[in-house]
Automatic annotation (TrEMBL):
It comes from Aphis craccivora. Keywords: Cytoplasm, DNA damage, DNA repair, Nucleus. One of its GO terms (cellular component) is BRISC complex. This is BRISC and BRCA1-A complex member 1. GO terms for biological process: double-strand break repair; mitotic G2 DNA damage checkpoint signaling; positive regulation of DNA repair. It is found in: Nucleus.
Amino acid sequence: MSYANALLKNSTKTSIEFKKLPEEKILFVIDTYALSKFDIDFSPTNIDPMSSVAIIRRAYRFFALQKNRFQNNSFGICLLTPYSFNLILDFTTNINIVVEKLSSVLIQNDKPEEAAAYDFGPLLKYIGKLRNLHKDCIFRVIMAYNRDDCLPIIEPLDKKTFNIFCSPTFYFDTIYVCENNIEKDEMAQTIYGKLALLCSTWSYKVCVQRKPIAIINGITSLLPHPYTRELSTK
């Protein structure tokens, strides 16, 4: 018997069955508030300064394109303004519309604006209502928070909203983009701790410095389907 025939005889012919994971509805929440228009400085190189919002926007665009390579997930886009929020795109599976809308996102204020705190209450209630409209799905919120000196205000949720956020098919992932090293910056540690209140044991929280590669890596680390992740113990 030839070597090739021997290999063929010993090879298993059992077909491999791939389990398809449920499709997701993903709400991108982009913090458009910035301390300055250009808050990422590439000096001493010749690259022009740019805003962290522009990097976040590009990272979300890459995320959406990669996420829908083999699935038909839906995406929505919500902006955090200095004191409120604005849903600019309802859920759609049309990736071209998602990419076009992300490309149109601009910084809301060109000049520094004093905002000592941001009340998440109205946003969380609105997300709860959105979730109620899409009960039979994996519902994800992926939020990039981009403020160094603005404390998140997160009050106890009402029972209905709390139950929604505790669902094992609901995920609220946060990416905190801060200017300084969080290990040395007490304000950054406080903000990060507040944002962690939004995360259930199934959700992830990520802290990155205001650097292009760090921001992109932080957002793309959330690409895997949430059913593949382990419970968060942090």
